[in-house]
Amino acid sequence: MSITGLKPYSAMKDSSVPWLGEVPARWEVAALRHRYSQVLGKMLDTKRITGTNSLRYLRNTDVQWDRVNVTDLPVMDIVPGEYGRYTVQMGDLLVCEGGEVGRCAIWTGELDVCGFQKALHRLRPLKVVRDMPRFMYYALHAATKGNAFSDGHVSTIAHLTGDKLRAHPFPFPPVAEQAAIVRFLDHADRRIRRYIRAKQTLIKLLEEQKQTIIHHAVTRGLDRNVRLKPSGVEWLGDMPEHWVVRRNGRLFAQRSQTGFAELPILEVSLKTGVRIREFENTTRKQVMSDREKYKRAAKGDIAYNMMRMWQGAVGIAPVDGLVSPAYVVARPLPSVEIRYFASLFRTAAYMGEVDNCSRGIVKDRNRLYWQDFKQIFSPYPPLSEQVQIADAIDESTRTLQHAMDRIVREISLLREYRTRLIADVVTGKLDVREAAESLPDLPVESSVEIGPDDEIVASPEVDDTPESEDATA
Question: What pTM value is reported for the model?
Answer without folding.
Answer: 0.79
